[in-house]
Design a protein that fits this description.
The complex is a heterodimer of chains A (346) and B (355).
Chain A: H1 2-20, E1 24-26, E2 35-38, H2 45-60, E3 67-69, H3 77-91, E4 95-98, H4 107-115, E5 119-123, E6 135-138, H5 142-157, E7 161-167, H6 173-188, E8 195-202, H7 207-220, E9 224-229, H8 232-244, E10 252-255, H9 259-267, E11 274-276, H10 279-294, E12 305-307, E13 313-315, E14 317-318, E15 326-329, E16 334-336, H11 341-345
Parallel strand pairs in A: 1-12, 2-3, 2-4, 4-5, 5-6, 6-15, 7-8, 7-9, 9-10
Antiparallel strand pairs in A: 11-16, 12-13, 14-15
Helix pairs in contact in A: 2-10, 3-4, 5-6, 7-8
Chain B: H1 2-7, H2 10-32, H3 39-64, H4 72-89, H5 95-119, H6 124-143, H7 155-159, E1 164-168, E2 171-174, H8 175-193, H9 195-205, H10 207-212, H11 217-243, H12 254-264, H13 276-295, H14 301-354
Antiparallel strand pairs in B: 1-2
Helix pairs in contact in B: 2-13, 2-14, 3-8, 3-11, 3-12, 3-13, 4-5, 4-6, 4-11, 5-6, 5-11, 8-9, 9-11, 12-13, 13-14
The chains are: A alpha/beta (346), B mainly alpha (355).
Chain lengths: 346, 355
Amino acid sequence: MTSRKTLGLTAAFMMGGASIASAQTTLEAGQEVDMVLLPKFLGILVFDQANEGAQEAHAELGNPGELLFVGPTPENSVAGQIEIMTTSATQGQGAVMLSNNAGDQIAPAAMAAQEAGTRVVTWDSPIPGGEGEDVFVAQVDFGSIGVVMADMAHSILGGEGQMAVLSATPDAANQNAWIASMQEALEGDAKYAGIELVDIVYGDDQAEVSYNRALSLVDQYPDLGVIMSPTTVGIQAASKAMQDEGLCDQIKVSGLGLPSEMVSYTMNGCAPEFALWDFRDLGYLTYYTAYGMATGQLTGELGESFTAGRMGDYTIEEDPGRPGSKRILMGPFTVYTAENVEAAAQ
Amino acid sequence: MLGLVDRMSPQTLRILALVIVLGAVILFFAAVVPNYLNGRLFNRVSSSVAIMALIATAQTLVIITRNIDLSVGSTVGFVAFATGSLVTNNPEIGPVILVAYAMALGAMFGAINGVLVAFAKVPSIIVTLGTMALFRSALVEFSDSKSISTANLPEWLISFPNTVLLQWGQLQFRAGFVAAVLVVIVVHIALSRLRAARKLYAIGSNPEAAEMAGIDTRKTVFVAFVLAGALAGLAGFMFLARFGTITVVAGLGFELKSVAAAVVGGVNIFGGSGTVIGALIGAILVDLIDTSLVRWQLVSEFWREAVLGILILLAVAADALLNRRLVAARQAREHRRAEERIAAELAGRAKGQSA
């Protein structure tokens, strides 16, 4: 119910935004601009999917320029992102599309890029302080992620029981925002009164750490009913740990996961429900936004609306989680269960 | 009891000191964490340490020769992925071939390090810092952003690490742990009994003297890196079997954890001394502290790393002190006994003269 209310509000806000703006901008195709898609690091499936979406938009808009997919290696993520940001500005790229893994450390490099005429569009993970960022393409409303996770816990626990959170790193900006919004949802709605959040632990987005943390939770809380993991690494490691120790009847796993990695755990009941958004769509929408800005067709003002190809109309609005910053909201979630996970895993 | 201590070699004393520290750590956490001491604790730590034990053993082989291998984590990650991809595409491949493949691949990476360190004479910290990034990039390239998924791996591989070989009350001895301990024991025996293996220690203690003594230092260091690579490859196989889902971050950070395990385990970072049994206990100690800290409510997540660091330092210091005490006490007793013997001899002589 609450999630529907939030979505309704969002829709109303988007329509409102559309009516304020003078007109809906339809982007003119065929203009030449070089752009860079910069993921947190290379070698992760979801970022490749985002690249597929961006390539699709690149072809659709007939941009004769180049779309580069470059990123750092996993052990060099922070320094590598800053370096690529700086290089892109030097090369005179029209826009950098960034999934930020460097916190506010990247802000000076991003501001320098903006001064050099490069537009900075973030996606997936924003620059927390908003400095150096033109606009953030948000996959879903960060507030509603909390509600979706609370709802999944509610349905798995049957309204009553203990939940623990297994997150990524303690300073991951997006995960922390999602957990905070879930805590808010749990406290704010009487529906969740029977759910007790007993602990929050961090698996550093590494399989072995997450696996061990999940088992520590089990040892620490004998009455634990569900482990909620808002990270694709954590959710699968926790599922594997519960399966290996034969605990799936007692403790379920939920959170944000990739259907292709989670399908076996959903089918055998270890992780009956989890959610995620479409990273191809996210890459596609990000490309449209960045293309519009780099070609000067979008100014990036609040209330500006445009049409992003097959995905429809979007409006630039203020980011409720980061006052003073701008965002474009994609949404919605897909919740995966035994009914739809196999099709999505293909 | 004292007599037993006197007959132990310094290395055995060192292990005894470590075991005492290990016991103290367990008692400490048992006092502050409710419901701590049970069979599950053993099962958790033993299963999780199986992989790090192999990597710490690999690291020890290299450290003994006064070198370091920072590329082990990347090697583990690459081998885990490549082995997973091989068996996903050819599910009929059996365990023996798969393990051989993993070890050969690891040995190949080790050989690259070995050539650069032993023959090109580049310092190992520089070489392996480079190959750490190189092997990781190779993994990113090789993986093509795909991940290995548990669903596509054969059943025997996934069930192997958790197969219970022996159950004693609540304590389970699982195949992964038993296999790792067997490997450590084999390496330990080889290091302490084989003439070829003693060369590693000779080179680590004094490279020039070893060269003078006719040891081919280049070949020996090269072999140490190749063996370390093969062990890291085996760890990669175990990593695949245990976690099933492998992405490009697999094994990230293992290089420093393995160095920590070896040093806590009494392996001299300047080469020349240390045992793999010590490294195994070091790995257990680090893992135990890490696992237990999560359950200690007093320590928040942000302080955990710091507290882990402090506890490791304390453990190392306690071990060093205890070890020194044990050695000193033994020397004192030996000294006293020698004095008594001399006194007795003198007394005997005096008696003989007077007779």
